[in-house]
Sequence to fold (92 residues):
Amino acid sequence: MRGTCELCSRSEIELTVHHLTPREEGGSLLPTALLCKSCHKQIHALYSNRELAIRLYTIILLKDDEALKKYLKWIKKQPATKAVRTKKSKTK
Ligand SMILES: [Zn+2]
Ligand SMILES: [Zn+2]
Fold:
């Protein structure tokens, strides 16, 4: 599936389904978002499922989080075709 990532807004990119409230936290029937692989991997590297369920359960909340803001600023400059390395959170 190709389209525009809801987080970094890069278009013509391979998309994956992200459960805004992780399934492990009871979110299987709750809204999902379509994210590129880089954004998806980055979210799960930065936050635990619990954190996502409690604090970051919408795209707007995610975009507003300090750690992700820095990542988004950077990823928007990366071409959609380039494979990117996932940065791990240092606070974990
Ligand atoms: Zn993205
Ligand atoms: Zn996910």
Summary: Residues 70 and 80 are 18 Å apart (CA to CA).
